[in-house]
User: Which sequence fits this backbone?
């Protein structure tokens, strides 16, 4: 039997924190195996294994627009995203 790496408890705690943060902020998570995962994105060789989103998401609709976030947003990026969301 293989021993667990020493990092495992920290990683598990981090995953649990992320999961709880998502729940607290009404963020939903889709995986490649979920039926609602966008079919066109799933067909890409480098499709992300997880999608995090808020609100209504009809990701398999004929026309879809997404705003992809970043951890270090700039004022320009914030303004552009807000303007784009209003259109």
Assistant:
């Amino acid at each position: 039997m293989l021993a667990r790496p020493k990092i495992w408890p920290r990683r598990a705690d981090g995953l649990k924190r992320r999961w709880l943060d998502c729940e607290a902020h009404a963020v939903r998570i889709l995986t490649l195996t979920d039926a609602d995962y966008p079919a066109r994105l799933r067909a890409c060789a480098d499709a992300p294994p997880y999608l995090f989103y808020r609100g209504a998401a009809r990701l398999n609709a004929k026309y879809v627009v997404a705003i992809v976030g970043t951890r270090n947003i700039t004022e320009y990026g914030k303004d552009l995203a807000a303007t784009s969301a209003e259109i």
